[in-house]
Write a structure and sequence with these properties.
Helices cover 51% and strands 7% of the residues. The chain is of the alpha+beta class and 522 residues long.
């Protein structure tokens, strides 16, 4: 009987290669059924929050009696633009009934997807509805997370079967191409944010931006006060971690499985830190949802229940293929490839813009955040009085918004992923003057009129019985108190001056200004 063959050096090398492929590439092609399940549930949660914001705050912001009525905006589009410039269902009807009814419909549909509905038609409806609101929401719906939700939501349509109703019940396998397109989206979100920081404020290069950021960001959280107390070396490490995740780890999205999973863990951890340290609406939550697509079923199968794993194994045993779906995904990839030229050129440009769309459907966009960081925090404080003469009035009472710093003794709130849009916009307004913010002047008028839908946007209305005779706006500088100084307040504030002089409902300058912008109801 012959002796067994002796392994050659070449055989050993091949075994090493096979072992490397099994460990790092995963051996078998990855499955994304559990990835799709987790991704769609997370996306549905974000949609639900977004439509809840519309339902609750829409009447006061863009309703017929709101600060920037959608009906007025649509009328201007009819006169000077076209449907293709601002594609929206509200192009034909922007009444309060339509705005409120479709917001509620979107909320219910998002909850159904959260409960398990997996259907391309449902995902298309959510995308089309939210696109419609973004195109009539004007300044209040002009933030980067809106276009991120639209781009993510559009890609999600192609992950779902056309006739599916239940998760893990259809044999149509998720397209790896769509998963890669979502990774390409995540790369642009993070890498674009990293580049704009390096090109922007010098404090990102000398590692000191976080010394100021926690105090001066739009809406601080309870953790912001504590993080602000940290020593400078801690803030420098935070900036270094930010640069590592956004500028280095992002390239691992296109690496073999284990490297990609480790990088995804760093990205997820980074987003969780951002969620805790500030109220940036659903931006970081949505980025977390997109991070889900950097992982695959080899990881999810370890943490999800056994029945889910068993269902996936049964479906993977005989996956269904659809010629129509394959063609649709191929067209999608081609469109994304062409539309990516603008965002890529923007990232390469020394004049890089952030949060910009290159098409009216917001299919492929460029992203970025905090290219500059404020060194001081100025806040507008709205005050009213019922006294007959504003110049001699002493009883000025302050309005409070839900999360914006006001009362220095009130602890910063944690509201993310929900978003108080008026609070956020007030942060921007403090960087300019009142005359350049028509919505703000209209807000003052609405407070004088006691407009119910607008007053509901506030946390504290000191004139619940009847509106004030005069309203004014004061500008204050806010700074966090320091740990150990014995103060029970979270802020100390110093008056800078007047932001808007006292006005009444009969003030000629106020009425003339609002008529000039078409904001007075005839």
């Amino acid at each position: 009987m012959g002796s067994p063959p002796v392994p050659s050096a070449g055989d050993s090398d091949q075994a090493d290669v096979r072992e490397w492929r099994a460990g790092w590439l995963g051996g078998q092609p990855p499955s994304y059924r559990l990835t799709r399940f987790v991704f769609l549930r997370g996306l549905a949660l974000i949609y639900a929050v977004a439509f809840a914001i519309l339902w609750r705050q829409g009447p006061g912001l863009i309703g017929s009696r709101g600060l920037l009525p959608a009906e007025r905006f649509v009328a201007r589009v009819h006169n000077a633009g076209s449907f293709l410039d601002y594609p929206s269902l509200f192009y034909w009807n922007a009444s309060d009934t339509a705005l409120n009814g479709l917001a509620l419909f979107g909320l219910v549909l998002a909850l159904l997807v959260l409960a398990g509905l997996e259907n391309a038609v449902a995902m298309f409806a959510l995308w089309a509805l939210y696109l419609s609101y973004c195109h009539v929401g004007q300044i209040f719906w002009g933030y980067g997370w809106e276009i991120l939700l639209l781009e993510t939501g559009f890609l999600a349509i192609f992950l779902c079967p056309l006739r599916g109703l239940r998760p893990l019940a259809n044999r149509l396998a998720p397209s790896p191409v769509v998963i890669w397109l979502l990774r390409w989206l995540l790369f642009r979100v993070l890498f674009g944010a990293g580049l704009i920081k390096l090109r922007g404020d010098p404090c990102w290069r000398d590692l000191t931006c976080l010394v100021h950021h926690y105090e001066t960001q739009p809406v601080p959280s309870p953790a912001s006060w504590w993080l602000h107390q940290a020593p400078i070396w801690f803030h420098r490490l935070g900036v270094l971690f930010n640069h590592f995740v956004e500028l280095i780890a992002t390239f691992a999205l296109f690496a073999p499985r284990r490297i990609r999973h480790v990088a995804a863990g760093a990205m997820i951890g980074f987003q969780l830190l951002l969620i805790v340290s500030g109220n940036l609406s659903f931006l970081n939550w949505l980025t977390l949802v997109v991070c889900v697509c950097a992982l695959d079923d080899s990881l999810y199968s370890r943490v999800l229940p056994a029945p889910m794993r068993a269902a996936v194994e049964r479906l993977d045993a005989a996956p269904s293929q659809s010629g129509a779906h394959t063609v649709a995904v191929a067209i999608l990839a081609s469109v994304v490839g062409v539309l990516s030229i603008g965002p890529v050129l923007n990232m390469l440009s020394p004049r890089q813009a952030m949060n910009q769309s290159f098409d009216p459907l917001h299919l492929v966009n460029t992203y970025g955040a905090f290219g500059s960081v404020g060194r001081v925090r100025n806040e507008i404080v709205l005050q009213g009085t019922r006294e007959a003469v504003a110049e001699t009035a002493r009883d000025w009472r302050e309005y409070e918004l839900p999360c914006k710093p006001g009362d220095v003794r009130r602890r910063p709130c944690l509201v993310t992923p929900y978003h108080y849009r008026l609070d956020w916009q007030m942060w921007f307004a403090a960087m300019s003057d009142a005359e350049s913010e028509p919505w703000f002047v209209h807000l003052v008028y609405k407070l004088l009129a006691g407009e119910r839908d607008v007053v509901r946007l506030l946390a504290k209305n000191p004139f619940a019985g009847a509106p004030p005779r005069f309203v004014r706006a004061e500008l204050h500088q806010y700074r966090f108190t320091r740990l150990g100084d014995g103060s029970s307040a979270y802020y100390q504030r110093t008056r800078i001056g007047s932001y808007m002089d006292p006005v009444s409902l009969q003030s000629p300058a106020l009425l003339r200004y609002l008529r000039g912008y078409g904001l007075l109801r005839r």
